[in-house]
Amino acid sequence: MIADDKDVLRDVWFGRIPTCFTLYQDEVTEREAEPFYLLLPRVSYLTLVTDKVKKHFLKVMKAEDVEEIWFEYEGTPLKWHYPIGLLFDLHASNTSLPWSITVHFKNFPERDLLHCPCNSVIEAHFMSSIKEADALKHKSQVINDMQKKDHKQLWMGLQNDKFDQFWAINRKLMEYPTEEGGFRYIPFRIYLTMSDRPFIQKLFRPISPDGHTHTLGDLLKEVYPVAIANEAKRYQVVIHGIEPLLETPLQWLSEHLSHPDNFLHISVIPAPSD
Amino acid sequence: MPVSLLWAVDVYGRVFSLSTGGQQWEHCCDAVLEFKRLTAVQQCCWGIACDHHIYLNVHASDVPIRYQEEAYENQRWNPVDNFSDRLLPSDRWQWSDITGLEHKPLDGFLLPSTNWEWEGDWYIDENFGGEPTEKGGWTYAIDFPATYTIDKKWNSCVRRRRWIRYRRYKATDTWAKIPSEGQSGPLPDPFNDISCGGWEISEEPRGRLSLWAVSLQGKVWFRGGIHHHTPEGMSWEEVSLPGEVVQISCGPGDLVWAVLWEGQLIVREGITRDCPQGSSWVVVDSPNPEVGTIHVAVGVSVVWAVTKDNKVWFRRGINSHNPCGSGWIGMVGEMVMISVGLNDQVWAISREDRAVYFRQGVTSTELSGKAWKAVSVPRDGDIRPNSSTSTSSLHSAGCFFSGEVRAQSVMSEDSDTEADPQRAVHEVGASVSSPPSVHLSNDPEAPKPRIPKVTSDSFISEMLSDRETKRDGAAATSIPEEEVTPGDAEAKSPPPALVLSPSQSGGPGDPQWSTVDLEEAQTHLAVGPAAGRGDSSDTCSLSSVVTCMLGLEGLYGPDDHPLWAWVSGGGCAVDCHTQLNWFNSVTALTSSIQAMSLSVSPAQTAAWRKQIFEQLNERSKREIDNFKHYEQAIEQSVWVKKGTMQWWRDWKPHKWVDVRFALEQFSGPEGHKDGIVFLYYNFNEEKKYLHAFINEVTILVPVLNDSKHTFAIYTAERTKQRWPIKLAAATEMEMHDWLALLSVSCCDSRGIQGPPSKQAIWSITCKGDIFVSEPWPSLEACPYPTPCDQMFWRQVGGHLRLVECNSVGVVWGLGYDHTAWVYTGGYGGGFFQGLASSTDNIFTQTDVKSVYIYENQRWNPVTGYTSRGLPTDRYMWSDATGLHECTKASTKPPSPHWTWVTEWAVDYGVSGGTDREGWQYAADFPTSYHGYKTLKDFVRRRRWARKCKLTTTGPWQEVPPIPLSDVTILPCGDQSVVEQIPLWAISNKGDVLCRLGVTLLTPAGTSWLHVGTDQPFKSISIGGASQVWAIARDGSAFYRGSVSTQNPAGDCWYHIPSPARQKLKQVSVGRTSVYTVDENGNLWYRQGLTPSYPQGSSWEHISNNVRKVSVGPLDQVWIIADKVQGSHSLSCGTVCHRLGVQPMEPKGQAWDYGIGGGWDHITVRGNNIEAPRVRMPSLTDALRPPSTLAARPLPAGNTENGNAVQC
């Protein structure tokens, strides 16, 4: 039997990154802080799933030494508003697991990170991404037709890791008229490690004007040709920790490998030089 | 819906067919002749060829048309010769029919026509009423005519035996000529129009059709006796007329309309099942009194007409009570002819471009449809011109229209038919010159010179003759030896411009090809602008085209579309929902179609998809599998869904009470999700609740009926009680939401997801719902099996009557309408939305079944039978029991998902027979009924049937075209994906069929191999070592000899005597065990089977109250039992499992009761999971009675039969 596309959705949702959190060495503690091991959901956000981490380290710290928590990997502050899987693919692919993240409670890097005082900030960020994606896909028609409780269900699904709850609603966001063969535009973002720009985002349709299906290769050729330049493979194009073939139809990718925020987050990273 | 064909004739008389699944007109290459008219039905196509003879093309089927001839050999005993063929002078013939009245010598049987062949020689029928005679087929009696018995007694003075021989219709997929014989010699004049239909008038005899024909002189003829066993029919009968008819149309039912020369229409009245040719005509005026009608087309309840000005008209108010309708409505579009097909769908040929148009949006509520849409697909000839067909059509057209007689040009079998074409030509000439059909083709003043004035025949002949002229001229230069016509009967002289110089035509290549090009060029030319139609422009454009074509072979532009003359949709099964790929102009859209299809179908197997699946697997290995001991970041919390429902309360008096219903879901200890359902109710003003753990729920059964949206929740405990939690939701949608949610929750709690395994046990309820259960190894454990009331069943979308599987995952199902379906490997469908359902493998499924009600009447001396009964009588309109009132108006389809598709009709197919009006008589209600009236009969009843249809979705794909009544698949072990899997089936007519090409990759197989039998069969099963057992309709059992991988169909049937006085109805064969069920509900085990004598020796009674049996690949025995007593109620149709079945003890010891009632079918033939070996020698030996041990049917260490993986 051929595996079903539904299984892809599950695999994507239940993707986990084994992580080891260690407290930054300069943080003041009362006794030595043990590292904390956790399976992080790839599709969620750091500040949404690290309550346990915070609790763990606060046990060894004095309240007056604690400011807003932030995370860093090998000197790079990790942006909580990027999905965890994206952060990992972008900064830590091809390194050994578990992923070692350093936890900070001081010296918040104002220039690099957004503040995240509470979960409602994450929710607002998440919902605005979904709305932006639907604006691209359906001129916002689907998201605007939904009720407030449907929006809430999307968020609750993500927050509580309820695949069924989330997809019961998200399914509608993935529909499109059969005769059009796909969304209006594919919501995607391409992230480059070697660039000052945070990411590349353009209008790109799933079907060419002459009726051809656009593939991942077509997108890269148009948006960031360097990634697939001919010479010996210099870059990896990674989505959810895997490298789809360039002939994969973009519409299919958008339906199956988008993050819960409905965006296809594509990392272009330098190929490991063996 | 199976693939079916739309037939059409182009203006050159070439026959094409277009499949509903296709995208190209296929040239009917067999047609040596040109055709004028076609009339198609699903099983065949009739046509009038240009020789004005009628031809029949019966579509080949995997089941051949066979007819059994029989004769009886009679003998009388005398003291000298013992039994001999010396009979008394008063006796019957020595060879006779069954009555003895007709002399029937074996050599007197002749084939009805050259389209038939004998299958073999005469042989003796050894079967007598389901019993093998074993005495050369003789049956004995005291004297002729008397009751015959198998046993010879002291007073048996006469004996007889039955000889049978089969003949087979061989002229399938070819055009077979039908002799134009009336009841008194050949018909006076040839045919001009033909229409076939009437199959809905009566189902008896099978495949009955009415064929109406119109002769050139305007007479109408009816052909009788056409049915499945005589596809050619018997003879023509003339039908008297009020005038001269030009065209006739016969619908699937009782509508027959015809067009008169004068332009009015006539409607046939009095068509019934006893009188299919009807009794009288009624005249209906033309839609426009100024302009006569030229064409009419009728369906089941529609009439379309075309008037001489090519306007299209739709007749209002047609129904079975009013075949004349009430008025005309003008429609958009100008057409030359119209054809109404199945489901009253409409095709037409447009006046403007001669294209075939399909009427869109025709539904049962909107019979006139919405708009015309052109069928624009290429013809196979357009893509690669076929030299042989083109040349052959040139030949016949040439000789036909030049009045030349050439032997090879017509399908002539004897010398006098050779003269026919010539005669026909003269008559064509005569008819063409008769008043209304004026030949205007050469009149340059006429505004539309090529539009036919009366029928499109004149158009064909016009085009043909036109083409002929040019072809003659051109061909004269290229292939002169073919066209030296000594008499030159040509009416038209070749235009001078057409004499091509050798330099123009003598290009490289062989002359045949240049002829082909000319023909194609002609087609090309003919669609050109109207300006090209005048003679002069015609010729010059032709010459230019010729030169052009010679230089550039294969130049067929997009405007080269075929010109059609006739279309017939009578065999084309489409409805407004059918997805047709006929409307995309290929040239314009090829690129986008290709692009789209890339992302749709081949995508399933595309490398990129495989890559993603593989990489995701690797990713979870890399990132999760080694780190499972890590804590999860998000703890699962409780999730609750609440609602209100009604509950059929547990205590008496039982009634529906309002309850609050809640499902609480949470994460179980091992990460499995679990939940509890709560049901809050009030009892004596006190708030109480009832709960069930989700992981204890064994099944959720929808019990949808027309009054409430009900479903039942079973646990093992409630299965024992035969008393589920019955709940009713407010709306259907709410019920489906709850069912889908609870179902997902149950599956989650048991860690079940995705499609069922290959070993799954499948079952079906009496409502046609499909359930599947994953078997545990402990299910067949001995001595402590898991009780089968603990099995968890989940629903799979679709609607079936029967399902069969084997242990490698091939699953077939049969619908109530006998359609065969193959399982696609998906899950969900039906009400399972979103994630509980796979996306790729779910398809639309339909099923049709009949709802029956009874009309009851009582006799009284004054008025005879009336619907006034005694006060104590049953309802005058009732169900079969008479206890419930069921009127035509109040009876609804079984559930809201079903919709009526027919009207109420008297059902003549009731057991016991009926009279001509469908009545069955009896002395009083309720007794046994008979089909004739006697003096003692005071009551009568008749059955009315109405068909309803269900449309749902499920992981099933249709296996067209043969409807089946039983199917069986060999349980086989692991095997390669291309190895053939034996699959046998019984068609709904009782034919035994063997499916070829069934493999893991192609579970639907490729074609049927028909296995001959002397009588219709009803049940079949194939088991270990390819043993095939079957049950005939008369209740006798048969064993098929020599079935093997090399010889998948075996070689002959061995008749196995039934248990005494019992008619068997179903058989199931396991690894070595053979079980049957008889019509009285007894379960029988076949004793004494050995590898050398696989037929066994005798039947042993196992149990009663059995409805069905399924024997698994390890000889497990499961049944559907009637009447199982639970602690709270009794259930019928319960799944039961035979306990204690072991290799040494195949009959087992006792029954274990599982889910039910209301179950109809189970198959355990996929479950080849061996039970864990728990050796407890002392215990198992103690369980086995010594007597059984001694009488064990099979020796230990039987290598051939002992292996389940033999196939």
Automatic annotation (TrEMBL), chain A:
GO terms for biological process: apoptotic process; autophagosome assembly; autophagy of mitochondrion; cellular response to nitrogen starvation; immune system process; negative regulation of programmed cell death; piecemeal microautophagy of the nucleus. Residues 12-105 form the Autophagy protein ATG5 UblA domain. Residues 121-175 form the Autophagy protein ATG5 alpha-helical bundle region domain. It is found in: Cytoplasm; Preautophagosomal structure membrane. Residues 185-268 form the Autophagy protein ATG5 UblB domain. It is a peripheral membrane protein. Its main location: cytoplasm. One of its GO terms (molecular function) is Atg8-family ligase activity. The keyword Electron transport does not apply. GO terms for cellular component: Atg12-Atg5-Atg16 complex; autophagosome; mitochondria-associated endoplasmic reticulum membrane contact site; phagophore; phagophore assembly site membrane. The keyword Transport does not apply. Keywords: Acetylation, Apoptosis, Autophagy, Cytoplasm, Immunity, Isopeptide bond, Membrane, Ubl conjugation. Gene3D superfamilies: 3.10.20.620, Autophagy protein Apg5, helix rich domain (1.10.246.190), Phosphatidylinositol 3-kinase Catalytic Subunit, Chain A, domain 1 (3.10.20.90). Forms a conjugate with ATG12. Part of the minor complex composed of 4 sets of ATG12-ATG5 and ATG16L1 (400 kDa); this complex interacts with ATG3 leading to disruption of ATG7 interaction and promotion of ATG8-like proteins lipidation. Forms an 800-kDa complex composed of ATG12-ATG5 and ATG16L2. The ATG12-ATG5 conjugate interacts with RAB33A; this interaction is bridged by ATG16L1 and promotes ATG12-ATG5-ATG16L1 complex recruitment to phagophores. Interacts with TECPR1; the interaction is direct and does not take place when ATG16L1 is associated with the ATG5-ATG12 conjugate. Conjugated with ATG12. May play an important role in the apoptotic process, possibly within the modified cytoskeleton. Its expression is a relatively late event in the apoptotic process, occurring downstream of caspase activity. Plays a crucial role in IFN-gamma-induced autophagic cell death by interacting with FADD. Involved in autophagic vesicle formation. Belongs to the ATG5 family. This is Autophagy protein 5. It comes from Esox lucius (Northern pike).
From TrEMBL, chain B:
GO terms for cellular component: autophagosome membrane; cytoplasmic vesicle; lysosomal membrane. Residues 64-125, 137-170, 846-907, 918-951 form the Peroxin/Ferlin domain. The keyword rRNA processing does not apply. Its main location: membrane. This is Tectonin beta-propeller repeat-containing protein 1. It is found in: Cytoplasmic vesicle, Autophagosome membrane; Lysosome membrane. Residues 408-514, 1187-1207 are annotated as: Disordered. Residues 464-473 have a biased composition (Basic and acidic residues). SMART domains: DysFC, DysFN, PH, TECPR. Keywords: Autophagy, Cytoplasmic vesicle, Lipid-binding, Lysosome, Membrane, Repeat. Belongs to the TECPR1 family. GO terms for biological process: autophagy. InterPro entries: Beta-propeller_rpt_TECPR, Peroxin/Ferlin, PH_domain, TECPR1-like_DysF, Tectonin_beta-prop. Pfam families: Hyd_WA, Pex24p, Tectonin. Residues 639-749 form the PH domain. It comes from Esox lucius (Northern pike). Residues 431-440, 1198-1207 have a biased composition (Polar residues). One of its GO terms (molecular function) is lipid binding.
